[in-house]
Structures are given as C-alpha cells and as structure tokens.
Give the backbone structure.
Amino acid sequence: MSLTQNTAYDLVVVGTGAAGTSAALAAAENGATVLLLEKGRHTGGSSNYTEGLFAVDSYLQKEQGIHVSGTEVLKEEVGYSKFRADSRIWRQYIDHSADTVEWLKDQGVEYEGVQAMGAGEATWHIYKGMGNAVLHDALLPQAEKRGVEVLTQTQAVALKQDANHAITGVTIENVATQETATIATRAVVLATGGYLNNAKLMKKLTHYDTDRLVPVSSGKGTGDGLTMAWDAGAKSYGTGMAMLFGGYLKDPDEPSFKMMPSQMNTAAGQQPLLWVNGDGERFVDESVVYNFSYAGNALYTQDQVFSILDQATVDRMAKDGNFMGLGVYVKRGEKMDKLQVEMDQALAAKKPFIFKADSLEDLAAQMNLPVDQLTQTIGQYNQDCANGTDSLFGKDADYLVPVAQGPFYGFKLNVGAFCTMGGLQVTPDNQVLDTAGQVMPGLYAAGNDAAGLAGDTYGPNMPGTCVGYAFYSGRNSGTHAAKYVQSQNVTE
C-alpha cells in the first residue's frame, strides 16, 4: 500500500501549522503540486491556540484610524534583539504584513478587530475562532481545493540531495506502521514549529531550567525539521530563545494548555502585585508582567518564586477587574468572577501550586519560606503601599496593593513558554543556508524553524509577530519554492 497518491511532487511541506499550511496553499496558488505532512493525528499544531497576527497599515487599522510606523517598528524590534535579528527580514515582513492580513481574509478568515497587549502598539489583528478556525475553516480547505494532498500521522525523516546539495527528495514514514517511502521532489519547506518539546535540545541549546519551564503548546515541537536540515548540512543558527510569558501554574494532573483560560492562573502569574523568592524576599518590580518575556527572565533569576494575594485583592479583582489579562484568553480589566471558585476547587483538590492560611506566619510555613523574612518583607511592602512609593524597585503606585486582609493565598510559579524560535539561517526568501553560508537549493524554512526575527528574548510590544511571521514566511517560502521548481523545469 502506497503512503501517498503520487511518487513525486513539486514541493513537500513538513508541518501543518500557520507556516506550513500557508506555504502549501501559496505554492498551490502558484501552480505547484504539493504534499503537506503532519506527524500528529490532528492538523494545526500550536498555531491552533494563537489569537491574532501582527501587521502595520492593514485595512483594519486604517478603518480604526490606527497609525503605526513600520520603520519605527523595525528599529524597535531589531534594537530589542541587540541586532541579532535580521533587518532585511524584518523590513520585508513588515512591508508585506498588511497584504498578509488581506490574503488571509481572501481565504475566508474573519477578524474581531485590532488591539494592543500590555504597553505595546495596536498591531495585533485578532481573528475569530482563534488559530483553529483560521486553519481548519479557511486555509486547509482552500489548500485541498487547490489539490494539496494532506497526510496526517506521516513524518519526514530525511532529506535527499544530489552532488550539489540540491534537494531531490524526502523520506517519509507512517507514524503508526513505521512504513517508509522516498518521495521525489525539487523543494521542501520545513515548518515544524521549533524544539520547545524536545528536552534534550532545550538543555543543549538554551539556558532555561526545563524543570521549571511549562511548555504550553501542542507538544509536537520536537525539532524534527531542524535536525533533519542540520543532518543535511544546514547551519545551526539563532538557537537559545524560548517565547516565555511570565508566571504559570503547573498542574501535574492536567495538560498545561488547560491553564490558559484560568482566572486563577492569570491572578497568580500575570498580575503586577507581590512576588517573593524562596528566601521570602521581593526581587523585582512586579509590573514587569506587562512584558511577558521580561517577566519570564525575571522569574528565572530566582530558584523559586511565589506570588501572594490577600482576600481583599481577590475580591477587588472579582468586582473591578484584573490589572493585566492573558491575551484574549483572559482580557485585561476582565472581572475575575470565577477566581474564588477556581482557587477553592484547587485547594479542595490539594493541588501542589496553591496555599491558603489565615495568617502570614502559617502561609510562610506551608510554603517552606522563612517566617521572619516573609513577614518583614510584607510589612515593608505594606508600608510602601501606604506611602505610595516602592522603596526597593520603584513600582508604579497604581500597583502597590497591600497584602493585609486574610485569608492569604500563595501560589508557586513556574515559567510558561509557548515556543522556540530559530535554528536555521535563512535568506529574506526563506532559503536555508548551509554551514558555509551558501543557499541549499530547494530547501526553505518558515515560522519558528527560521531564525532572523528575534534575539535572545521575544519582543512582545508588537503582539502577534511570531504567528504573523509564520503566515508571512510560509507564504513567502511556498511562493519562492514554486518559482524555483518552475525554473528548474525550464532549464531541463
């Protein structure tokens, strides 16, 4: 029994997330025959959980009177990366971002509007139904209408090349049966979503403590495309960065992504209130949560971190709303009307991340923190709240909320992460470079497999840049791959 309908395709795309599906559709729009591979049972990957994409000068922004300078965005993002990002890639990405929004609309994607996140710019184009609807109600159906063959539970395991290192084929494997086949193709687009879920690669390529990292993703980002390309001679480049998003509760009994819509998770890890370390001391201006990547970095400076709320703060957020949301899962200013119930349920279930006590001394004992130090820390913090001045770290007075009315709640914080970015150096056309810096003919990388968008920290002031780049780079890869194949056919 054959694994595929045909033995040869113009293009094979590996991965069915935003990047891979966009690549397959764009290539098909340009006349290529395409095989789209998904190693899991379900398509979409972590892109299913995304909320919206970045763009400048889109038709939606123009309708709302939103003006953002593309050049200023470029300067900010490249500067934020300490110039590790590729300015050429950013320039091209920004210049095509409005067209990406329009292209998605033409495929059937519907938008809720444009908004900012935290202190960032209003560049985040929120789509209806999240990424799941974008992929499964729009892009994948459009791709299949254009003849793209989609195979699930089928992974690419090796690239085939000629003497000049040009792509000639790819070996694929059925995950369930382990049956393999070699497919002839002129071009391959790698869009496998990075390596966040590969513990060995994370330990090797990053400085993060994987015991404290909570991957909130599809679980399929295991570096498949990267290792396949490296084995074929591609340069390992731009690794080491994970997209962190601040404090996150780790429930050993549930998949980590289930915490995303939790008001308790938002209250514990995403608010600019009170954090202490394992010594019972404050260690940072907690309003760092407004930049979730910085917040993740700050949390990593300490071996342990706890957030502490009192009953008055819980009641205030239920009545008046939170200080900071979690994207569109829990919106900024949303009334936390489920918070108390969620905390009570977690306590009743004896979840290991939550503690409750009628006194701070008892709370410290439960969390195994030094009682004298914690009470001293909170005493000083409450005095700062009364004075309206953070004597240690200068936190804005609006977020100086005392911890004074019991019962008191403590939460053990880990660090959430959505993806890694980087691994393969690419040209602005998303062609992969080898160890000598030369283009590998017919090999392209898109989305999180491609380096060039970030430095050691993701820049969240322009929300949606990661998935926006996935859509853009996928389309860019697919378009150029189709043209490359056509050029090869002409020269034969």
Q: What stands out?
A: The chain has a mean pLDDT of 94.
